[in-house]
Amino acid sequence: MQVQSVNVIAHPRQARIAYQHSNAPGTLTLDCPSPLESLLFLFEDCYWIKIYDLNATGASLNFGRYEVHLLDEDGPQAKMTCDRYTAE
Q1: Based on CB atoms within 10 Å of each CB, which residue in 7, 22, 34, 65 is the most buried?
Q2: Taking a C-beta distance cutoff of 8 angstroms, is the pair 16, 44 a contact?
């Protein structure tokens, strides 16, 4: 995966990540990501993005929240939570 750009929008707070994977472009939009500092890892060697539904992992108070893990070839390097995500 190669990150092309990261745009952070103040209101409503969103992060839009444009990437290319296997010569196919894509966009991942995260609503209300926190902490924003985690996005800095995308400019290094980010190979994968994994998204976990926190409610499915037993955290019932986090219904509708997701945990986003940014990984390099060795494992997780940064993580954040978001309220919603869409992938195009």
Answers
A1: 65
A2: no
Separation CA 8–CA 35 (nearest Å): 12
Return d(Cα 67, Cα 87) in angstroms, integer: 15
Structure tokens at 26: 């894509």
59: part of which helix (H) or strand (E)?
none
| Sheet strand arrangement including 24-31 | 2-9, 14-21, 24-31, 84-87
Question: In the β-sheet with 76-82, what is the strand arrangement from edge to edge?
Answer: 48-53, 66-71, 76-82
- Interatomic CA distance for residues 21 and 14, integer angstroms: 22
In whole angstroms, give the CA distance from residue 28 to residue 61: 25
Q: Average pLDDT of 41-59?
A: 78
